C-alpha cells in the first residue's frame, strides 16, 4: 500500500505575494502596506491615492461581491509585487476549503425569503467556487487555466498541484488564491530548477501565518543569496 | 507509449439510465428523456422539464449526488489501491444546504463540494482525493489534471468522477439568468432558446499505457491531449468570437502534431443557449474553416449536467471511436447559421477515430480534450 508523504520542498519560486483582508493589505517584496476602515473598497482607494504601484483597471470591482473583490485586489498586488502588470497565460488556482458557501447561503436565503419565485442573478453568479478566480482573470487579463482545488492537506497540497500544473507546461506562472476567514493570500509562483524548502510555512495554520512565514523565508533566501 | 494516459473504463448514470451503452443508445434514438420537474416548486412557470435520473429523489439525509455516486461506484472496475481519485463538481451536495435554509435548521452544513469530496472518498474507499471545480468545464479540467499527472509519471491510475444534480438552487439561478428553455433544449439549432438542466454521475478510469498493458486492462481510447484557457472577458457570457477556445484547440493540435483535417469529429459543449453555441460555432469555423467536422452535443439528450458534462462527453467519445459514428443531434430541427455542415439529425460517420471534446464554463473557462483510438 502506497503511503502519501507530506511534501515540503518544491521546484517553485515565489515571485510575488500579497495578503488582503477588510482592514489592510500587505505586499511581500515591496514591503508596502495599505490600511482602511472602509473595507476592501477603502483599501483599493488607498492604493489608488498612494500611486505607489502601477494600477490595473479593476473595471468590475464596484459590482463584485466581497470574495471577488479580495481576489481582484490580491491578484493585482501579487503581480505588482513581482514587478508585473499582467500575468499573460498565468493559471489561477483557488484553495482554502471555504468554496463559496457564504455566497451560496446569501443567494438561496434571498431566494427563499422572497417566496421561492425567482433568484437574484447578481447573487447567483457569485455562487461558484471558481467565480472570484474568474473575476480576477477578467480584470487582470489572465488567460491560463482557472480552477478551484481542494485536497487533503493545506498549503502543501496546493503547492504540489501548482508544481504539477507548471511542470506540465499548462501555464507559465500560477497565481494561488487562498481564502480563509475573510482573508486572501495571493501567491505568484513560477517553475524553478531548484528545490525550495517550504517546510516552515507549511506549519502555519492561517493565511496571515503563511504570509509571515513565507516572507521570512524569502528574506532569509535573499540574505543567503 | 509509456506514461501516455489511456481510458480503461467508462461508466455513466444519466436520465437515460445506468450504463454507457444505455446512454449511447439514447443518443442514437434521438429520444429526449426530459420530464417535468416535480422535486421542487417551479413557481410562476406552468411546466418546465429537466433530465433527471429515474428513481432518484430528494432525501433528507443522503444528498442526491451521494446517491448517484454510490450507485456508480458499485459497478466501477476494481483498481489498485493507489489509484488517485479526482472529483469534478460545481455545487456538490447543494440539496443539503437547501434543506438547511428551507427548514430553518440551526446546524450549518459543510461546504457542499468539500462534503461531496469527503463522501466520494468513502464511497470509493480512498484515503486521498482531489476536488477540481471549474464551473461547467470541471469535468474536462479534472480529466486533464489527472491525465497530466499520469503522463508525468506521478501516478499510474486515476479515477475521475463527475457529478451534479438538478436542484432548486441551480434551477432558480439559471432561470434568473434567462438561460433555461422551458420546453427542452435544442443545441446548435437555429431556434435554440436555452439549456435544459440534467443530472448525472460519471466515472472515467485513466491508466498509463504501461500499467494498462501490465495489468491486462482494456485500452478503450487514449487521452492524447488537453489544453485549458480563460476568455477573461465576462463572468457569465463567453467571448463572442471564441478566441480563447480557438487557442485551446490550436494548442492541442500543435502539441499533438496533428492537423485539423485529422480530427474525426467534435463533441461540443453545446448547451443550447444563444451565446454559448454561437461562440462555439465561431471558434470551430475559425479552426476548421472549410474542413467542417461532424459535431454533436450530449446536452440535447442528457441535459446540462454541469460538473459531469465532461465525463459524459469523454465516455461518449469512447463509444463514438468504437462505432466510428457521432450520434444524431437530439432536439435539432434546423441547424443554426454556420453549423449547417457540422450538425445533423442523422448519425454522422467519423472521418478519423479522433475526437475533440469541448467544455466551456462561467467566467470564460475553456477546457479541451483530444481523445483518440489506441493504436
Short description:
Chain A has 225 residues and is α/β, with parallel strands linked by helices. Chain A contains eight helices and seven strands; from the N terminus they run E-E-E-H-H-E-H-H-H-E-H-E-E-H-H. Chain A has a seven-stranded mixed β-sheet with strand order 3-2-1-7-6-4-5, sandwiched between helices.
Describe the structure.
With 225 residues, chain A is α/β, with parallel strands linked by helices. Chain A has one domain: Peroxisomal Thiolase, Chain A, domain 1 (3-Layer(aba) Sandwich). Chain A is 40% helix and 24% strand. Chain A starts with 8 loop residues before the first strand and ends with a helix. The model of chain A has no long low-confidence stretch (mean pLDDT 91). Chain B is of the alpha/beta class. Chain B has two domains: 5-214, Thiolase/Chalcone synthase (Peroxisomal Thiolase, Chain A, domain 1); 223-372, 3-Layer(aba) Sandwich (Peroxisomal Thiolase, Chain A, domain 1). In chain B, strands 1, 2, 5, 6, 7, 8, 9, 10, 11, 14 and 15 form an eleven-stranded mixed sheet that branches. In chain B, strand 14 (354-361) and strand 15 (365-372) form a beta hairpin. The model of chain B has no long low-confidence stretch (mean pLDDT 95). At the A-B interface, helix 3, helix 5, strand 5 and helix 6 of A face helix 3, helix 4, strand 6, helix 5 and helix 6 of B. Strand 5 of chain A pairs antiparallel with strand 6 (129-133) of chain B.
Attribute tags:
heterodimer, A: 225 residues, alpha/beta, Peroxisomal Thiolase, Chain A, domain 1, 7 strands, B: 375 residues, eleven-stranded mixed β-sheet, two-stranded antiparallel ribbon, globular
Approximate strand percentage of chain B: 15-25%
Structural class of chain A: alpha/beta
Number of helical stretches of at least 4 residues of chain A:
8
Which sequence of SSEs, written as H and E, runs from N to C of chain B? EEHEEHEHHEHEHEHEHEHEHHEEEE
Amino acid at each position: 500500500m502506497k503511503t502519501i508523504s507530506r511534501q515540503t520542498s518544491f521546484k517553485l519560486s515565489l515571485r510575488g505575494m500579497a495578503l488582503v483582508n477588510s482592514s489592510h493589505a500587505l505586499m511581500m517584496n515591496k514591503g508596502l502596506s495599505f490600511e482602511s476602515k472602509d473595507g476592501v473598497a477603502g483599501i483599493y482607494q488607498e492604493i489608488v491615492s498612494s500611486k505607489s504601484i502601477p494600477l490595473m483597471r479593476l473595471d468590475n470591482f464596484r459590482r463584485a461581491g466581497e470574495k471577488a473583490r479580495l481576489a481582484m485586489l490580491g491578484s493585482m498586488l501579487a503581480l505588482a509585487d513581482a514587478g508585473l502588470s499582467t500575468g499573460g497565460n498565468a493559471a489561477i488556482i483557488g484553495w482554502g476549503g471555504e468554496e463559496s458557501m457564504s455566497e451560496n447561503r446569501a443567494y438561496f436565503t434571498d431566494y427563499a425569503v422572497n417566496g421561492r419565485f425567482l433568484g437574484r442573478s447578481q447573487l447567483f453568479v457569485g455562487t461558484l467556487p471558481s467565480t472570484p478566480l474568474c473575476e480576477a482573470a477578467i480584470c487582470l487579463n489572465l488567460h491560463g487555466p482557472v480552477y478551484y482545488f481542494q485536497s487533503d492537506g493545506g498549503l502543501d497540497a496546493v503547492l504540489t498541484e501548482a508544481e504539477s500544473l507548471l511542470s506540465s507546461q499548462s501555464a507559465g506562472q500560477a497565481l494561488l488564491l487562498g481564502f480563509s476567514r475573510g482573508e486572501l493570500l495571493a501567491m505568484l509562483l513560477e517553475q524553478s530548477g531548484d528545490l525550495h524548502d517550504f517546510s516552515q510555512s507549511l506549519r502555519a495554520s492561517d493565511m496571515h501565518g503563511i504570509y509571515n512565514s513565507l516572507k521570512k523565508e524569502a528574506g532569509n533566501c535573499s540574505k543567503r543569496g | 507509449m509509456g506514461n501516455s494516459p489511456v481510458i480503461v473504463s467508462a461508466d455513466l448514470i444519466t436520465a437515460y439510465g445506468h450504463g454507457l451503452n444505455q446512454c449511447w443508445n439514447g443518443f442514437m434514438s434521438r429520444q429526449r428523456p426530459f420530464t417535468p420537474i416535480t422535486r421542487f416548486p417551479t413557481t410562476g412557470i406552468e411546466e418546465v422539464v429537466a433530465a433527471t435520473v429515474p428513481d432518484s429523489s430528494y432525501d433528507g439525509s443522503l444528498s442526491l449526488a451521494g446517491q448517484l455516486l454510490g450507485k456508480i461506484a458499485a459497478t466501477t472496475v476494481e483498481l489498485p489501491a493507489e489509484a488517485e481519485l479526482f472529483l469534478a463538481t460545481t455545487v456538490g451536495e447543494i440539496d443539503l444546504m437547501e434543506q438547511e435554509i428551507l427548514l430553518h435548521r440551526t446546524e450549518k452544513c459543510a461546504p457542499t463540494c468539500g462534503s461531496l469530496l469527503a463522501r466520494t472518498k468513502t464511497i470509493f474507499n480512498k484515503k486521498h482525493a482531489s476536488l477540481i471545480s471549474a464551473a461547467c468545464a470541471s469535468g474536462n479540467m479534472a480529466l486533464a489534471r489527472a491525465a497530466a499527472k499520469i503522463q508525468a509519471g506521478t501516478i499510474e491510475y486515476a479515477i475521475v468522477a463527475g457529478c451534479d444534480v438538478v436542484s432548486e438552487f441551480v434551477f432558480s439561478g439559471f432561470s434568473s439568468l434567462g438561460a433555461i428553455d422551458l420546453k427542452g433544449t435544442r443545441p446548435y439549432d437555429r431556434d435554440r432558446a436555452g439549456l435544459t438542466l440534467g443530472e448525472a454521475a460519471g466515472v472515467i478510469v485513466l491508466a498509463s499505457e504501461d500499467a494498462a498493458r501490465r495489468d491486462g486492462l482494456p485500452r478503450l481510447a487514449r487521452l492524447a491531449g488537453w489544453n485549458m484557457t480563460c476568455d477573461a472577458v465576462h463572468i457569465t457570457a463567453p467571448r463572442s468570437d471564441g478566441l480563447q477556445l480557438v487557442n485551446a484547440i490550436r494548442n492541442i493540435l500543435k502539441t499533438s502534431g496533428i492537423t485539423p483535417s485529422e480530427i474525426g469529429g467534435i463533441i461540443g459543449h453545446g448547451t443550447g443557449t444563444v451565446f454559448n453555441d454561437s461562440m462555439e460555432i465561431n471558434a470551430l469555423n475559425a479552426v476548421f474553416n472549410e474542413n467542417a467536422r461532424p459535431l454533436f452535443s450530449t446536452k440535447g439528450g442528457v441535459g446540462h449536467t454541469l460538473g459531469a458534462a465532461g465525463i459524459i462527453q469523454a465516455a461518449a467519445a469512447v463509444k463514438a471511436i468504437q462505432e466510428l459514428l457521432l450520434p444524431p443531434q437530439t432536439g435539432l430541427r434546423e441547424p443554426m447559421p454556420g453549423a449547417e455542415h457540422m450538425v445533423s439529425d442523422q448519425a454522422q460517420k467519423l472521418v478519423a477515430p479522433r475526437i475533440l471534446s469541448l467544455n466551456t464554463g462561467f467566467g470564460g473557462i475553456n477546457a479541451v480534450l483530444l481523445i483518440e483510438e489506441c493504436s
